[in-house]
Amino acid sequence: MSTQTSAPADAVPQPLVVRTVPLDDLGDTATPDPHDLLDLLPTERPLAWVRRGDGLVAWGETMRVTVTGAGRFADAERVWHEVLAHAIVRDEVQLPGTGPVAFGSFAFDDESPAGGVIVVPRVVVGRRGGRTWLTTITSGPRLSPAPRLADVVGPRVPPLDPGGVVYTDGAVSADRWREVVARGIDAIRAGEVDKVVLARDVQARAEHPVDARWALERLAVQYPSCWTFSVDGMVGATPELLVRSEKGLVTSRVLAGTIRRTGDDDADVARAAILAHSSKDLEEHEYAVSSVAQALEPFCSSTNVPDVPFVLHLPNVLHLASDVTGVLTAPTGAAAHPSSLSLAAALHPTAAVCGTPTTAARELIRAIEGMDRARYAGPVGWFGADGDGEWGIALRSAAIDPDDPRKVRLFAGCGVVAASDPPAELAESEAKLVPMRYALGRDASDS
Ligand SMILES: C=C(O[C@@H]1C=C(C(=O)O)C=C[C@H]1O)C(=O)O
Prior knowledge:
about 450 residues; about 25% helix
């Protein structure tokens, strides 16, 4: 386990200086458009967490903390608290996402060299429920003057078109991945696990370096009910919220159980009904919901777990979905309730992306999946000074290669139970690759 900061807390010569001011000149707040926020982003290292035009975009790096190992979440959180302890903050808006903010992305597996990162940006622009704000985070001896958007936003450079994209096999070819799924089913039948989530990657090579903003804009428009994110080269639009923690209330959107859409609305209504009654999918879903409910329980005075899932309609697939909620309480002996990142650490990996039981499923994934998931299926999101924040599961996502941004690794996985069928899972994984293929494409039908 190791922690590295580009500006370690004890070596930061000056405290963080954080100013949040209201912003009036950002689009029509009554009908938020994701472009209003995303259009502000520069090409270099854009940070984003947006949904239906609300959320946060950020750029610049005042501090970066890289972590590895099983303690990666706790290490990141410790450094964040150390830095905050000395921060000079004036927050004139006082909403979730105002004041100091850090974005993070963490590896799925404790043993992955991808580890994790939190980035404290230099500039954040946020919007929520018709209110918009600007935060600057610098370091210095005293409070800086109130920032103005015009001073911190560069000239708008439209997202760069990646050009033609060629797709090739990732670590495991599609054919061989069917065998991986078959091995997973054998392990379930042998009683090693009840459910395992198996994933694959696909390598994309674009004609030009991939500008994350190109993907973000396409994803935010096409997948408005998802959380469109960009943190340290990890880009995607996830439908699955690992945890949101806000003023003592915690929410998790659990997905598991999937059916592909046909493109025909009537047929899809019929498919939604099939999904809602499919015992195989309901079983997969139940494992995922129980894992979240059990992980939240020690931190909550009460939880609400829906009896039956609803069907979430996305352009590419339909999912069984449950919104689990809870009221946070301080665990015995602790003064405060845990931060959103600690909750994410406690929840991760849920059975929606790992399996049941967790340890055996993770071992099975290590043994048969044949790739390092890196930050795919790990927590991605942001948190603030009070620990509140939002962490999604990095699904429907891709990693832009930092050494060669023409290269992008796309990921997709599927929950496997005893009744699963390898060719059907392969087809489901293809459907889950559609959002990122679309994101790298060039016109509406490109996917
Ligand atoms: C693993 C992924 O998705 C997860 C698996 C699902 C399933 O198997 O039905 C559904 C949603 C996600 O929890 C992915 O998109 O890569």
